[in-house]
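Sample pair:
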Amino acid sequence: MLQLSEVLNALRRLFDPKSHTKCPPPKVMLPEYPGGLLSWICSNEFGTRHATLLDPADQSAEVAAAKALAAVEGGSKLILVGGSTNTPENKVHDTVVGIQEALELRVWAASQDSTVDEEDWRIPVILFPGGAHALSSSADAILFMMLMNSTTPRFLVEEQVKGATWLHEAGIEMLPTAYLICEPGGKAGEVGQANLLNSPEDIRAYSLCAKGYGMKILYLEAGSGAPSPLDSEMIRSAEGECVFVGGGIRTTEQAISAKEAGASWIVTGTIVEEQEDLDQIRLTIEELVSALN
């Protein structure tokens, strides 16, 4: 069974600048799709897909990179980086860089092996920010989120204003995202000072408002580590063409329920962060992804 320590040692060797001279420059990492990254994310051509959320506060950059590779092997099609509001920018950046380098090397390895499809490793690494301090110039994009049911201007617009100029000048694509935190909300609801949503009528009203604002992505959050995921009726009431659903999803049955209710993306984080066995991470994600197909 593949152990975390073995992968970490391999990543350390691969990240050694001396070893990089043996490889050609990495190729562009984004999936090839008409209309670019936002169109790829919002497309319904692929059915319901899986995204893995990794919080830099919970592990080192090397561990995050190893877990990201295991998740992608399991079928995850998007890596989100972020979550905690007090994570230093350098830790966020180091995590993004570590994941990008690991994926770039797997793309290069796939290009040398006719039995492996490079596209399987062209996985976007996107910021899931806890605030304007938690950014990285190496990310492919950012979920540029408005926490629409926050009761404080900080998460409605102030953090976004603080980061907008930097993101623009760094060339980071800003993906317009309406973020809604529902009961129980967890730490995200507490920190975001959210008026937690608890009815399908709430979801429908907020999602229609988001559509009026021109938001392309709707992210429904039950809270990191929530004891149970969002009720299917809550998801079904969302008015949006691209709906992310996260928080509390741990089983294939819960993933299928979210898919059948209309989720475009299923986001899991806790099931990866609590597990150190990379084979187990891969198998867990593989089971969820298989249930979605």
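The longest strand covers residues 173-181.
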